[in-house]
Fold this sequence. Notes:
Layout: H1 6-21, H2 30-37, H3 41-53, E1 57-60, E2 66-69, H4 78-86, H5 96-110, H6 114-130
Antiparallel strand pairs: 1-2
Amino acid sequence: MLKLPAGVEYSLLAMLHLTLRYPGGELVKAADIAAEQDVPLSFLERLLAQLRAAGLLESTRGPGGGHRLSRPPDSITAGEVLTAIVGPGGGGARLRFLWEQCERALEDVLNVSLAELATQWSHHTTDVADYQI
């Protein structure tokens, strides 16, 4: 199984968290995201800065401040989040053909919008919550 950096997973969790709050247009504090998603706050703040720099988030400072998606969730893809955190794909020149195939396959899978991903995520988190031993 492909293992992506923790920052990618944490960023996707943060973006999904903001997706669920998008309809109300509310600003969400990083500390609230960190607590609900069990992500270290200092690490999350760096990731949010990267997502903001990539144009995926809007942020407001101050007591009433926080973060929200810069565009509707159906117009932001998981691939955009990945690229914002790890940068564009790359690999060694000698196996370039292999890395290009991997990148195309990953692009196909990650061309899912945050809105679609949030729907899938809510089904999976419900399934996990209902699991009993």
